[in-house]
Amino acid sequence: LSAASAKAGGHLRHLDVSGCAEISHGGVIRVLRANLNLTRLVMDEGEGETFRLRLRPHHVVALAHTLGGRGGAGSSAPSSLPPPPPPSPRLDVSVEVAGNRELEELREMLIEASGGNNSTPTPASSAPPHLRVGGAEVRIVALTVSLLFVKAVYVVQGVGADADENDGEEEEGGAAGGGNEAGDPMEETNGRTASHLADIVNILGVRGLRRINFGEGALRCPRSAEIILESVGEACASLRELRVDGGEVLQTGSTRRWFSAALSACRATLRRLTVTRAHLLPPGNAYTSRGGGFTLPDTLEQVHFEMPVRPEFFERFISQAVGARALSLARRPSGGGRSSRSASAAARWDPKFTVELAALTVAALRDPALCRVTHLDLSNMDLEGCEQLEVILNGVAARPGPCVLKVLSLAGNECRSIGGASVSGDGKLADALTKALLAHAGTLTHLDVGALPRVAMHAALECAPRLANLQTLDLSGSQLNLTSTRSTAAANAPDTIGRALSTALADPTCRLKRLILVHCSLVAHDLREIGGGVLKCKTLVAVDLSYNNNIGDEGCRELARWIRAGSEGGTGAKRIRGKMKAGGGGLARLELECCGIGDAGAKCLAVAVAANLNLMRLDLALNINIGKSGRAALASASSGRSGIWHQLTTEDTPWAGSGSDNDDDDEDRDEEDNSYLTDDDGYFASHRVSRPSPWSLD
C-alpha cells in the first residue's frame, strides 16, 4: 500500500482497501497524510473475519472531520485542463462497538448525523441516503457489537453491597419490551441497552448496512434479543451477512422465532449466515414443533453452524443447510497460535458429533434435489473415533455425478489417537479419504487435512499428485517428523509425513501452487526433508511456515536455498505463469511470521533475496530477535520491493501502546514506528481526553 501511494505522488483521490486483511490502520493513515486530495475512503471488512479494518465510533468521527476538511481542496490536474469539481468527501466503513460506553457514542453520533435527537431517532421512512458527519458523507456498511448486556448489577447501600444474581436468562414468553421491573437496575440497564441498539440498527439498516456481527454478550438477554432481532427484520433490507452467538440467540423458543422472522425478512439479500456455539442449543423436542425451530432462507450461499449436535435439531437443520454452496460445521480454534488448526488448540465440548449425525449428513449430501454444496468444512469436530469421519467421506465419495466438491477441510480431527499412535479404524479412514479425494479429483482446488491421523494424512499426500486442479494444500497443526506405516516407497517400512510430502511435491504431475504448514513444530531438519520436493515442484509459488518457532537461524540456511532456486525464468507475474514450463521450483511468496529468526538468519535470507528478484513477498513479522543489522541487510537486498519485510511494524510490537514514555528510549526502533497507536488509542484510560485520535492526522 505504501509503495502504491508513493507512485501516486500525492495525487490520490480515492482509496478502497475493502477486504484487505493485511492492511492496518497505520498503513491507511500514512496514505491519508501523503495524499491531501484524498477525500473518498472505503474500509469495508469484506466477507471474511477481517477485524483490522474496523473502526471505533470515535475513530469514525475524527476521520469524517479530516475528510470533510478536505472538501474544498484544490485540484491536482495539469494547468492546461479545466480543474474538475472537488468530489464530495465520502467515507464507507466497518464499525466495532464493545461495551455500553461505545454504544452510546455511536448512537449519539448517528442520531445527530441523521437529523434526529436523543429521544426520537429519525424514522426509517424519512431517512436521507447518507449520514453527514463533520462535512463528510458517512455510510456504515458493517457493524460488530459485543459485551453489551450485564448479567448482574452490584448496588452499594451504606457500607455493604447487594448483588442481583439474575443472569438475564428470562423465562420463555416474557414481554418483548424488556419488562423493567420496578427497582431492578439490571432490567433497566438491559432494556435501555436493547432500545439503543435497536435505534442504531434502524438508522443504519435503511442506509445500506450489509453485515451485522452480534458477538458475545450482544444478545444475552432473551427479552432484549427479541427487540433487536425485530429491528433487524424491519430495517435491514440490504443485509448480506449475519453472525450471531447460538449460545444466546437460540436458547429459548421465543428468540428462535424472532431469529427465524429476521432471516425470513432479509431472505431477498441475505447470503451468509454464521451461528457460533450452536452446540449450546438446549435439549428438547421443541425444534420439531411448529414455530419451535427456524427455517433457513433458500437464498443462502454460505452457512456456518458451529457444532449443531442436538439430534432433535440436526435433521431439520442439515436438510436445509446443504442448499448453500458452502457448508461448515467446524469449531473455531481457541488457542495454540493465530492460525493453529490442531484439535488440541480447542476446548472439548459435549454432546459429541455422533455416527447418527454423520449418517444424516451423508443422506443430505447425497440428495441431488437438495444439495448444492461445493465447499465442505468439518474442521475441529472433536471426534472420539474415526467412524464418524469415515461415514461422511464414504458418502462424499458416492455423491451423484453433478455434485462436485471444490474445497474440503477436515483439519484438527485427530480422532483421539492416543500418543499419536494409530488406533483401530485409522486404516479404514485412510481408505475412505482416498476414495473421496479421487471421486472429486477433477474439481478439488483446496484440501486441508492438517492434524488428521497420520495414516490418513499419508493417504491424502499419495493422492495429491492425482488431483489435477489442486492449488492449495494445508497441513497446519501436523508434526511432519512423525512416522507412518503407509508408504509406497518401501513396503511395510515406516516413513515420515515430511518425506511423503516431499515425494508428492516432486511428482511431475503435481500442480500445487500454495503450501501451508502453519504451527507444525518444524525444525531445520524437517525443512531439509521436504526441501527436495519444494525445489522440484514446477508450480509452487507460495509457502506459509508461520508460527514454527524452532526454525531459527539454522533453518534459514535451507530456506535460502528455496529462495535462490527461483532466480531464473523471468520476473513477477510472467515468471509465475512460466513456471508451468520451467524446469525447477522457486517461490514468489514466503511467510515466516514468528519463526524464532534472529540477525544471523535474516542476513542469510537477505543474500538469497538479493540474488532472486522474483521473490515479491517475504514476511518476517513477530521475529523479535531481528535487530538493526538484520533489518538493514534485508532493506538493502529488497531493491525497492515493498513486500520484503525490513522494518518493525505493529505486528512485531503489539504491546508497545500509543504515546508510551518508553517509545523514544528504544534505540533499536525505527523512527516512524514511534508514531504507532493502538486501536483503542488509550480510549479506556483515564487520560484519553488528552490523546488525539490518529485519524485526526494532527
Structure report:
The chain has 698 residues and is an alpha/beta fold. The protein has 19 helices and 22 strands. It has an 18-stranded mixed β-sheet that branches. Strand 15, helix 13 (454-463) and strand 16 (472-474) form a beta-alpha-beta unit. It starts with a helix and ends in a 60-residue tail after the last helix. Residues 73-79, 159-181, 335-345, 417-423, 487-493, 569-585 and 655-689 have low confidence and may be disordered.
In short:
This protein has 19 helices and 22 strands.
Descriptive tags:
single chain; 698 residues; alpha/beta; 18-stranded mixed beta sheet; two-stranded antiparallel sheet; 19 helices; 22 strands
